[in-house]
Design brief:
The structure is a single chain. This protein has about 210 residues and is of the alpha/beta class. It is built from 8 helices and 5 strands. It has a 5-stranded parallel beta sheet, sandwiched between helices. The radius of gyration is 17 Å and the shape is elongated.
Length: about 210
């Protein structure tokens, strides 16, 4: 199997590689793209079995085809899982409104990613209920997590995705100052000194 992972965040691409290795039992060759230029270069050069495409990699939003014609020009039969960085208006549309085989939000649980990848590789499609929320990703009963408020768990989940305070504020409709306060509280609960330590810890907790 040959997969192409396209997303600007290094840490998120690494996380997707781990998820793929847990879903696919056969040997995997993974190509990575951190920008639109490298993404298009891989499309033209390599034969790909699955494309995991973050919306932050695109020249334009998916509603404007997001270079989708380029994907189909060079990879006519390759399934594409679009990974939304934030909620977009098209999220409330039917699957037929998307020019891809699957759509998932970046903050969904790892189990959702595994299900989406499995369905696309088997020839299916994946358009989950938008009722899934950030707060459902990390279970409340997971050790020290019981000491966090629901909002702090949401922030921790987004930290695991490598989000900045500004990005977290936009997603959760909070001020950056409020996010900073919650991040500081998370550091204190888990006895970590920086975002990297908190990020790695959060990734281990996500199921």
């Amino acid at each position: 199997m040959r997969a192409l992972i396209a997303d600007k965040q290094d840490l998120f691409r690494q996380s997707l590689k781990i998820v793929l290795s847990e879903v696919v039992s056969t040997p995997i060759t993974i190509f990575e793209a951190g920008c639109a230029k490298s993404f298009l270069a891989s499309l033209r050069k390599e034969k790909i079995s699955l494309i995991l495409l973050g919306t932050n990699i695109c020249f334009k939003e998916i509603a404007e085809k997001c270079e989708y014609e380029q994907i189909r020009l060079y990879q006519p039969h390759t399934p594409v899982l679009l990974i939304e960085d934030q909620r977009h208006p098209q999220s409330n549309q039917t699957p037929d409104c998307y020019p891809v085989e699957g759509v998932i939000h970046k903050t969904f649980a790892i189990s959702s990613y595994k299900k989406a990848i499995s369905q696309l590789l088997s020839g299916g499609r994946y358009f989950p209920s938008q009722a899934q929320t950030v707060s459902s990703i990390i279970p409340k009963e997971n050790g020290e997590l019981s000491k966090l408020t629901p909002r702090q768990r949401e922030v921790l989940t987004l930290l695991a995705q490598g989000k900045s305070n500004k990005a977290i504020a936009e997603i959760l409709n909070l001020s950056e100052g409020t996010v900073k306060v919650r991040v500081t509280a998370i550091f204190r609960v888990f006895s970590v000194r920086n975002r990297t330590q908190a990020m790695l810890l959060a990734q281990k907790m996500i199921k």
